[in-house]
Each structure stands twice: as structure tokens, then as C-alpha cells.
Write a structure and sequence with these properties.
The complex is a heterodimer of chains A (268) and B (343).
Chain A (H helix, E strand, L loop, with lengths): L2 H20 L3 H28 L8 H18 L5 H9 L2 H5 L5 H18 L1 H9 L9 H27 L1 H4 L3 H14 L11 H9 L7 H8 L7 H28 L7
Helix pairs in contact in A: 1-6, 2-3, 2-7, 3-7, 3-12, 4-8, 8-12, 8-13
Chain B lengths: L3 E13 L4 H10 L3 E14 L4 E5 L6 H9 L6 E6 L8 H7 E5 L11 H11 L4 H14 L15 H13 L5 E5 L7 H18 L2 E5 L3 H7 L2 E6 L2 E7 H8 L2 E8 L12 E6 L2 E7 L5 H11 L2 E7 L3 H11 L19
Classes of the chains: A mainly alpha (268), B alpha/beta (343).
């Protein structure tokens, strides 16, 4: 085994353990699936009623809108897993000290732990999808668009991870991150395109919103999926995602170095 | 070369000064006044490989702060620290491979998973060679009698079982130095004894260096030859327990059971210490008065039901040092008043 592979081994193990741990909370997982399916039903009723009043606002036809809303909900099964929440808890309880006494990189630990959780929750997409199909019709794009969607989703996942990381690492200074989390969560729900397509924002506001980092999380993959973003615009969209990813990950690692240096463990 | 060495180690915590009251809280938001609190001051010590040292002090004395600097998670304000040839806070990851840590108050095991899975995880973290891992696991499982609960989720373990798991977890990677922070807290006598045996055995068979921080001085008496005493951040004694006992050992305590309650208690040649109900305690120096003499004096004055003499225990010696400060007869370490000013 090469040195690089050996160095990677603990992190694979963290992911596997996180996966195993998540699977011990089955009730929570099933209720997540139930909640997503319920929301698919609500969104179908809501959008259908809205479209009855005003056919195709902002040029998105009803079937595409329902596809958008349903795929967004299925994506949320993965994107709402916050593997970095452990940072806040560990800092507050002081257990971060024990972790720092191990020969591991904690940012990578949180990433692999979060990834293990994610994989488990991703398995829940299948039952949620099958149940949703009983309620709505979901458009299936071309294989090329599907592949581009997958790539954009992966990049959005990473942007989302580092955004969460930055929010939670604030705990090193404030111990409490609830207010910040809530603010960013609200902004993100609205501005990421999770609840409604960013095309609904008018004029200048719409342009500003689609240039914000939140758009990289839901809006970019979803616009590719429903075909609102034509293949000619894909590269530019990936570029924007990569830019945010580079910016967020670089600041996350930089801030982490600071944070590690100022560990004042609580109640030690 | 010493395996652990500190020179003039110092740690000052700076925190925002808080003014009481609602207005004060508002002011704290806008103005920043700082208060410095010295947690560790000029600690100089060195440990040889294979030593088992008790690191003792009252709450808030600076023990945990010292341990955190030795494990590399806290950066000293000034001074020098070296652990197995490394500067811990500059080489946290490399230092982590040399050390093991056991906290009595918090577990490093995976709460939701069977005990054995935490061990597997540690095998991956420290890249322990498979053969070595198997051998250590087998040895610790039998020494700590963990066979029965290896596959039980940690959250279902009793405190004693969990502590045994934590000990194994801290030592699977053959650390050269192990830090123990109150490892027997809350355990029953049997569990305590089994943990102490384990420590003694690993220390003698593997030559592992231990630093033991505890409030249970029975742990220290059973395991350590040397103790380091710290109070309000300063080192007040560093040496053999025996020496401390000899020095303070001239004092004994006469415990007297009185037949009936009485007012003032005083006996010539001994110092009245305390009284609880009908039990009175006198401290005396055996060079100044013999026990026989003292008992007769007491019996002359009071109606005595029973008497007994207590040998000085480490605990009472340490308690005295906390209150009075340590006076070194050879003045090898400067006498520093600890806690209350000496009388």
C-alpha cells in the first residue's frame, strides 16, 4: 500500500462509520422520506393552483415547474445533511480537544463523516422518488443534460459543505452559531433556488441573486435539469460553481488554521 | 534525554472583562476590556522515559492547562516544552502519534457503535500494523476483561466497562507517553483496582511513561513514586512521595471519643484540629510528646471512651500543603505560599 493510500485510510473508515451510525437512526430517515413526499404533494397543489391563475409565469411551463420542485425536494434529502454541525457541538462540549489529540486533519474528518452520512441519505432518494412518481410526472432530460446535472449537483454539494463548514467554525469564537445559521439558512432557502426558480426574481434583483454563491447549490443543477440553461451556458455555470468552491474551501482551511490555534476548550 | 521537558512554561488566558448588570452587558458589547488570568506560571520539570508521575493539585491549579500544552492543543504564552523530542503545538499531528490520552470525564469512543468498531477506527487512524493490532487487542481484552462487551454499543456500557474501553483505546497504538486525567473518577473499588493494576502492568512491562492527574490520592499512593504538586499555576513540590511523608510524617493525629460533649478542648503539647460530635482530633509531633504522654493528659482532663492514632496519609499531607504552603527543609524548591497565606 502506498503512503498516500495509507493516509487516506482513516478517512474512508470515518465515512463508513458515519454510514453505519446513520443507519441506526431509521425512524428519522423514514420520517425524512415521508416529509419530502408530503411536500411534493403540497408543491404540486400550490404550483398547479398558481399556474391556473397565470399560465407559465417567467416562461417556465407547468410540467417543468413540477419537475423542478420535485427534483429540488429530492436533492434536499442530501443537501440538508450537515456533517459539519459536529464542529459546533464538539466545540461547545469541549470534545474537540480529544479529536485534536489524534493524528488526523479535522476538516477532512468532518468531510468524510458528512460524506458517509450523505451516502446513507442518498439511498433514501430511491423510495422518495418512487413515491413521488405516484403524485407527479417528472420530466427526464437528455443523457448529456443528466450527466451535466450530476456534475453540477456534485459541485453544488461541495459548495454547500464548505458554506456549512464556515458557518459552524464560527463556534470557535462565539460558541453559539444558532442566529448565524438561521439567517444563512433562510437566505439560502430563498436565494439558492430551492423553493422557487431564481427566474422568478425580477430584473436587477434576479441578476444579483443568480450571481450569489447560493445559486451554485440548487439553481445551477436544476436549471440544467429542466433545460432552462442550454448546453451553451453549461461551461460558464460550472466555472461559477468552481469559483465559489475555490473561494469557500480556501477560506475554510485558512479559518480552520486560526481556529485550531485558538482552541479554548470549554470546561476542560 | 528526558522524554518530557518543560522550562519556564507559562500560560495566560485573556478574556473579555464583563461588567455586571444589563447596562454592563451592553457596554461589554461595545468596549473591550481584557482580564488576564495566569493559569500556569514558570513550570519547569522533566520526566524520564518509563516514569509514572502523579500530577496533583486542587481544582483550577493549572493541571489540565499543562496537559493541554503537553498534548499540543494549547499554545503556551511563553516557555519551552518538548515531548519525545517534539514541540507539541508546532507538530500536533506527529506528537499525537507518540501519546495516548484517557479522560475520566469524557470518552473518546464512538457513542453509537459497538466498542470493537471504535478500536477498528483507531487502527485506521494510527495505521497500526495488523499483527501488532491483533496482539495488543488480545492482550488488552484479557487484561481488562472486555471479552463480554466488545460488541456492545458504547452507550449501553457501564461506566467501569466504558473506562476499560477507553484505556484500551488510548494504548492500541503503543504510545510512548500516556496522559491520564482523573481516570478512576466515579468508579467502584473493584473497577478502580483493576484499572490501577492495568496501569502498573503496562508501565512495568512496556516501559510506557504515565502522567497521572487525579484527586484520588489512593491512585497516586498505589502507583507513583514521584509526585509533582501544583497550585495556582506554580510548581510547589517535585519529588518522591516518601520524602514528603518523612518530612511531614513526624505529625500524627490523636482521635479521641469523648463520653459526653464538652466545651473548649485544649491539651498541652498538641494542637486541637477539629471536632465532630463527640469525636475530637489533636495533631501532635512525636518528637515533642509521646503518644502515651498525650493520651494520659487527655484522659486526665476529659472523660474518654476510646482513642486511636492516625498515621499521616498522603491525602492529609497534601491538604496541609494546600492550606499552609510547602516549606522545603533543604530549600531545593523555593517555598511558595499556596492558597491561604501561611500562618
Amino acid at each position: 500500500m502506498s503512503a498516500a493510500a495509507a493516509a487516506f485510510l482513516p478517512y474512508r473508515e470515518f465515512a463508513l462509520k458515519a454510514f453505519a451510525r446513520e443507519s441506526t437512526y431509521r425512524v428519522e430517515v423514514f420520517s425524512n422520506v415521508g416529509s419530502v413526499v408530503l411536500r411534493v404533494y403540497l408543491f404540486r397543489s400550490l404550483w398547479t393552483a398558481l399556474y391556473a391563475q397565470n399560465a407559465a409565469p417567467s416562461g417556465i411551463p407547468l410540467h417543468a415547474m413540477l419537475t423542478y420542485a420535485t427534483v429540488a425536494l429530492l436533492m434536499s434529502l442530501i443537501l440538508e445533511v450537515d456533517g459539519t454541525r459536529a464542529i459546533r457541538d464538539k466545540v461547545r462540549e469541549g470534545t474537540i480537544a480529544t479529536d485534536l489529540m489524534k493524528p488526523i486533519s479535522l476538516p477532512l474528518y468532518f468531510f468524510s463523516d458528512g460524506f458517509g452520512q450523505t451516502v446513507f441519505h442518498a439511498l433514501m432518494i430511491l423510495p422518495a422518488l418512487l413515491l413521488s412518481l405516484l403524485l407527479v410526472h417528472i420530466d427526464v432530460p437528455s443523457p448529456a443534460a443528466l450527466a451535466a446535472f450530476a456534475l453540477a449537483f456534485a459541485l453544488g454539494y461541495l459548495v454547500n459543505f464548505f458554506l456549512n463548514f464556515l458557518m459552524n467554525v464560527v463556534a470557535f469564537w462565539t460558541l453559539e452559531t444558532f442566529a448565524i445559521q438561521l439567517m444563512i439558512r433562510w437566505a439560502s432557502d430563498l436565494l439558492s433556488g430551492q423553493l422557487l426558480p431564481l427566474a422568478f426574481f425580477p430584473g436587477l434583483l434576479g441578476r444579483v441573486v443568480s450571481d450569489l454563491p447560493f445559486a451554485a447549490i440548487y439553481s445551477t443543477p436544476l436549471r440544467i435539469y429542466i433545460g432552462e440553461l442550454p448546453p451553451s451556458g453549461w461551461l460558464e455555470a460550472f466555472g461559477a460553481q468552481l469559483l465559489w468552491l475555490a473561494l469557500f474551501s480556501a477560506s475554510a482551511f485558512a479559518i480552520w488554521r486560526f481556529a485550531e490555534r485558538r482552541v479554548v476548550v470549554q470546561g476542560g | 534525554m528526558s522524554i518530557i521537558e518543560t522550562r519556564d512554561l507559562r500560560k495566560v488566558f485573556r478574556s473579555v472583562k464583563r461588567t455586571p448588570g444589563a447596562l454592563g452587558a451592553l457596554r461589554t458589547l461595545f468596549t473591550r476590556e481584557y482580564v488576564d488570568r495566569v493559569a500556569v506560571e514558570d513550570v519547569t520539570m522533566s520526566l524520564e522515559a518509563g516514569e509514572l508521575v502523579g500530577y496533583i493539585g486542587p481544582n483550577g491549579a493549572g493541571k489540565s492547562t499543562t496537559l493541554k500544552m503537553l498534548t499540543g492543543i494549547l499554545v503556551p504564552t511563553s516557555g519551552y516544552v518538548s515531548v519525545a523530542g517534539l514541540v507539541p503545538h508546532e507538530q500536533r499531528m506527529r506528537n499525537a502519534r507518540n501519546i495516548g490520552v484517557v479522560f475520566g470525564q469524557r470518552s473518546q469512543l464512538y457513542w453509537d457503535l459497538p466498542l470493537i468498531e471504535s478500536f477498528e477506527l483507531l487502527r485506521a487512524i494510527y495505521a497500526i500494523p495488523p499483527a501488532r493490532y491483533k496482539q495488543n487487542l488480545a492482550e488488552f481484552t484479557s487484561l481488562l476483561e472486555m471479552e463480554a462487551f466488545l460488541s456492545t454499543p458504547v452507550r449501553q456500557l457501564s461506566l467501569g466497562q466504558r473506562m476499560r474501553g477507553d484505556f484500551a483505546a488510548a494504548m492500541l497504538h503503543d504510545p510512548r507517553i500516556v496522559f491520564l486525567d482523573e481516570p478512576t473518577i466515579g468508579l467502584d473499588v473493584v473497577a478502580k483496582e483493576s484499572i490501577r493494576n492495568f496501569i502498573a502492568r503496562v508501565n512495568s512491562e512496556r516501559g510506557t511513561t504515565f502522567i497521572l492527574t487525579t484527586h484520588d490520592l489512593a491512585d497516586v499512593e498505589r502507583l507513583c513514586r514521584r509526585i509533582v504538586l501544583i497550585d495556582t499555576g506554580r510548581l510547589i513540590y517535585d519529588g518522591e512521595i516518601e520524602r514528603l511523608k518523612e518530612q511531614y510524617g513526624t505529625h500524627r493525629t490523636l482521635v479521641v471519643e469523648l463520653c459526653e460533649p464538652c466545651g473548649e478542648l485544649a491539651v498541652e503539647g498538641a494542637e486541637f484540629e477539629s471536632r465532630e460530635g463527640n469525636t475530637a482530633r489533636f495533631r501532635f509531633d512525636r518528637h515533642e510528646i509521646s503518644a502515651d504522654q498525650l493520651i494520659r493528659r487527655v484522659a486526665d482532663r476529659y472523660a474518654v471512651e476510646d482513642v486511636s492514632i492516625e498515621e499521616p496519609e498522603l491525602e492529609s499531607i497534601i491538604r496541609r500543603i494546600y492550606v499552609e504552603g510547602y516549606q522545603d527543609p533543604d530549600a531545593r524548591v523555593a517555598a511558595v505560599p499556596a492558597g491561604a497565606a501561611p500562618a
